[in-house]
Amino acid sequence: MKKINLFSLAVAGMLALCVFGCQKKDSATSASTNQDGISATTKSQITSLGFSTENARKVDGGYLVEGDILLSEANLSEKAESKHLSVAETEQYRTTNLVKALPRVITISVSNLPTVYSDAVNAMITRYNNLGLRFTFQRAAAGTTGQIDVIGFNEGPSGGYITLGSSGFPTASGNPYSQIKMNTNPAAYGANPNLLYLTSVLQHEVGHCIGFRHTDYSNRAYSCGGTAVNEGASNVGAVLIPGTPSGPDAASFMLACSNGGDRTFNANDVKAINYLYK
């Protein structure tokens, strides 16, 4: 999940002017690899899965796309079991692989993070478990690593945004994605992170771990601002969820960019989650 950072946006604009002026002679790149270090072939694979390559970057373990989604090399080569779950005109709850072998308990651990992050994980678990789904979350036993492990990383703003956290999608075998990274840089949550804000970001990242895409993937400008980007439908079907509105809904917990507050499940989120897991 990303948060818009207007101050860093202004700084980034000045840096962009400097880089363009100082490196004009190096503007030509090879046909196989772009300046971001991602080959044209890899970008084609990302696009074929229905993800945007805008601001995609190479990171440890794969490629970070849409601000907070980690795609591994295995993800790029596999065919996901995907559906469109349509809600309103601008939102789609699009799934990749789903968690299988239900009902089941999914354990979550927290590694080397301050207490407030651990408390936020507990609050996030309560929010999901209150839905009465066919899976339940619980904290892993002390000293053990859960099926989802929450760890920290430290990264400042870049390009007008800061990454609040990141995660990935379920495996082809039906297990949830195994790791959530939470940004400990003060520019992300401040010197004293707000418990409910952390809870909402964790709630969003767990949404990816169990198979949910960003609800505004068809128009990321909806929550992030800037130019509208449609990430494409790939080659998947569509399922309309009955009883959802005909207009956009600005409160989904799976919007791509954070509003800086406590964004939890709204009525349409619950309908989508229930459709898949209740």
Mind explaining what this structure looks like?
It is built from 8 helices and 14 strands. It has a 5-stranded mixed β-sheet with strand order 8-7-9-12-11. It is globular. Helix 4 (115-129) crosses helix 6 (195-209). With 278 residues, the protein is an alpha/beta fold. Residues 4-33 and 231-238 have low confidence and may be disordered. The protein has one domain (2-8, 39-277): 3-Layer(aba) Sandwich (Collagenase (Catalytic Domain)), CATH 3.40.390.10. Helices cover 29% and strands 21% of the residues.
Set out the fold topology.
Elements: E1 2-4, H1 6-22, H2 40-48, E2 57-59, E3 62-65, E4 69-71, H3 73-77, E5 83-87, E6 91-95, E7 104-110, H4 115-129, E8 135-139, E9 148-153, E10 161-163, E11 165-166, E12 179-183, H5 186-189, H6 195-209, H7 221-224, E13 237-240, E14 257-258, H8 267-277
Parallel strand pairs: 1-14, 5-13, 7-8, 7-9, 9-12
Antiparallel strand pairs: 1-10, 2-3, 3-4, 5-6, 11-12
Helix pairs in contact: 4-6
Gist of the model:
With 278 residues, the protein is α/β, with parallel strands linked by helices. The chain has eight helices and 14 strands.
Structural class based on helices, strands and sheet pairing? alpha/beta
Number of strands: 14
Work out the helicity level.
25-40%
Largest sheet: 5 strands, mixed
Low-confidence stretches are 4-33, 231-238
Strand content: 15-25%
Name of the level-1 CATH class? Alpha Beta
Number of domains: 1
As laid out across the biggest beta sheet, the strand order is 8-7-9-12-11
CATH architecture: 3-Layer(aba) Sandwich
Overall mean confidence score, pLDDT: 78
What oligomeric assembly is this protein in? single chain
The number of distinct helices, counting runs of at least 4 residues, comes to 8
Question: What sequence of helices (H) and strands (E) makes up the elements?
Answer: EHHEEEHEEEHEEEEEHHHEEH
